[in-house]
Amino acid sequence: MEFFMDCACHSGLEYEKCCKPYHDGYASAPTALALMRSRYAAYALGKTEYVMDTTHPASVHFHQDRSLWNKELKAFSDSTQFTGLSILESSEDQVTFIAHLMQGSQDCSFCEESLFKKVEGKWYYLEGKHSS
Ligand SMILES: [Zn+2]
Known about the structure:
Bound molecules: zinc ion
Strand content: 25-35%
Low-confidence stretches: none
Shape: globular
Oligomer: single chain
Radius of gyration: 14 Å
Order of helices and strands: HHHHEEEEE
Number of strands: 5
Structural class: alpha+beta
Helix content: 25-40%
Mean pLDDT: 95
């Protein structure tokens, strides 16, 4: 049923026409917003490599120990349902969004203002500020 799967970033588009080319490495997300959406979808789909590869090395979220980092991401991804994504605001290098998440019966949605940085034509996640 992969063929007509809606993208996990909740864009309403087919995965193939949305975040898949970025996940598969055929293309780089052209904007900070596209990168943000594709990272949300990567979390939802357990594509931890993509999450790690699009995190800026200067970010506090960047870990030197990739296998440990991978385990943490997988655990988060496996225990969470990614039920929705609302974009509140976006500019060239900043996106404010609400990630709708459930862990079991617990709503752990959050609002984040994320900052992105472009390096040699590719966008990376730099940091984020949470508010509830
Ligand atoms: Zn998408």
